[in-house]
Design goal:
Layout lengths: L8 H15 L8 E13 L3 E12 L2 H19 L5 E14 L5 E14 L2 H10 L5 E8 L2 H29 L6 E7 L10 E7 H5 L11 E13 L3
Antiparallel strand pairs: 1-8, 2-4, 2-5, 3-4, 5-7, 6-8
């Protein structure tokens, strides 16, 4: 006597459901993503000036060269101390031998740099005039003070953020949408903070100033803040 097995209907039903999911029409779920950026610029005058000078000596004896450099630098420091709004920093002290083509020692050469930093350009001009007989003027540069920089960072970020939102809304409308969603936002570092120095090499201050106070000038600095983003537009 044969036994009749039941038909595996649950298995077939499940198989049909899975098959229907696999062969059914697919829906593109990728949203409409738009990459864009917003940039604002601001021109500002630097408020901090940096001038680099050097004491330079050559001579037949290393000790004499070293003493001459120390004497020049000490005189400069004593004069600079009279100006309360100028900070000083010595750097790059070096005394080295000089050889000829036959590798014979000919003399010694030495130097030391003095960096002067201030937000009072008139005081710096007066000091440079006093140092013209003993030090050489290498270069001057300028920058924003920390307080001024923080103010400009906040100002640029506020302007850039508003422009960023306005641009996103304008792009969405141009593409036929009233609504959008910001999916990504990246704030770039501010560009334009480091102004290049003005080099005047191997010249004394007297050659530069000609018995007048050296001009301490700065060029306007253009700061740039950029915000990049990705917005998502709803399906039509």
């Amino acid at each position: 006597m044969s036994t009749k097995l039941p038909w595996p209907r649950p298995f077939i039903t499940l198989s049909l459901i899975l098959t229907g999911l696999l062969i059914g029409p697919t829906v593109n779920a990728d949203p409409h993503r738009v990459h864009f950026e917003s940039t604002v610029t601001e021109t500002v005058m630097p408020d901090t000036f940096v001038v680099t000078l050097r004491a330079y000596e050559e001579g037949p004896d290393a000790t004499q060269v070293s003493r001459a450099i120390n004497r020049r630098m000490q005189q400069a420091l004593n004069r600079a101390k009279r100006f309360a709004d100028i900070t000083m920093q010595t750097e790059g002290y070096r005394v080295s031998p000089v050889y000829d083509r036959q590798h014979q020692l000919t003399h010694w050469r030495g130097q030391q740099r003095l960096r002067l930093t201030t937000q009072a350009p008139s005081q710096l001009s007066q000091l440079l005039q006093q140092l013209e007989s003993s030090l050489q003027y290498q270069h001057q540069s300028y920058r924003l003070s920390d307080a001024r920089l923080e103010t400009m960072r906040a100002q640029l970020l506020t302007q850039a953020t508003k422009h960023y939102r306005d641009k996103a809304q304008s792009l969405a409308r141009l593409l036929g949408h009233d609504r959008f969603k910001l999916a990504e936002t990246r704030i770039d570092p501010i560009q334009g903070l480091n102004a290049p120095p003005r080099p005047i090499l191997a010249r004394s201050l007297s050659e530069t100033s000609r018995n007048a106070e050296p001009a301490i000038e700065a060029d306007a600095v253009t700061l740039t803040q950029t915000i990049r983003g990705v917005m998502v537009l709803p399906d039509s």
